[in-house]
Amino acid sequence: MTEHRADQERTFAALPPARGRGFARTWWGQAWLKALEDTALDGEQVKTGRRLARAGAVGAVSVRPGRITAVVHDRDRTAHRADVLLEELSDAEWDRFLDVVVERSGHLAALLDRDLPPSLAEDAAAAGIELLPGIGDLEPECGCGAWDHCGHTAALCHVVARLLDQDPFVLLLMRGRAERLLSADLQGRDPAGDEGPSEPDGVDAAEAYATGYALPELPPLPELPAEPGLPPTLDSGTPPAPGVDPAALEILAARTAVAAHQWLGETLSAGTAAHSPVPEPTVAQDAVRLAAGVTDSAVLDRLAEGSGRSKEELARAVLAFRLGGVAGLSVLEEEWAPAGDDHARACVAVESAWEEDERPSLRAENNRWTVDGEDRQLRLGRDGRWWPYRKRQGHWVPAGSPAQDPATALAVTARAEGWEE
Question: What stretches of 27-142 adopt beta strand conformation (E)?
Fold first, then answer.
């Protein structure tokens, strides 16, 4: 076996909750999940793992030869270390695999382009090398004590399927070789041999035709910071110029940071979709906007009184505003009944967001869908986005940013268990 080295390990940051219903888009990512489903003796554990992965319960993933590792949290936030083992290829098998790669120029080009064409896997199999795991090849180890695949190892496998989609070199690392070492080995091989120049082998016509329509994936959008940045203090000890109020400037700078954070959140949530013109806020809404950039308790008391809210109501309103601006504030304080097309679209979205056996029991009332027996709720905004809510101290409180998909929004409420108002 290849000796393990420190540079033969990659660590991937925790992925955000999975949107939609699928975890793997590529054929090799789907084959990885098929190996999990065929290996696990209890199909319910696979479903549990899928739910945990969809909720973002899997932490950073470490990938090294023969093993993948991550910490997975249950819904009660109990942490378990989960490992999945996969047998490495021997040195002789790696030699045969490298020969297969360099025999056809299309294989090498596809691999370097982060693609794993079926023809490469088939040629490797013909040489006696099975790149993708089969039945029984994914061996689980978990701190929860389960001897078979449990929800934690199944969740890890679902997240790794997403990593494999992005980079098939993750699979090759699990099989024993890091990308840098593979590249060095490939560079040392001359596919033409010592026989002089020869006609290129070419590529399969169907493969070349399909590649022509393949576009690389766009890089992922940046994560939204947890809160707006803090503006610099203007308390320099130097007297201000006549007519300049440093305290007012500090409030203006803080409000600008809040507005920038809000716009960034809306842009990340809506992608490149066109935004409708934003109406002028009402006096009550503007009081919340001002409060979002103020820390002085006396000023906050005045804003609460002037807007007809208690201090606690103002605090909840500020949280909603920071998460979604005026739209988020409206979702907190206004209840409305979707009708016609709005109601039909909402029902279809809820029905299709989960697999039938995974759909939570939801009780609908106007634009609010509450999970039966739990303090979790989805609220539909007038813009069609879904807003996650949790009940704290008898009041419904925003639990996170909105999402286009109700399953993604509800997953946020599961991660907000330890949130404090």
Answer: 61-64, 67-73, 79-85, 139-142
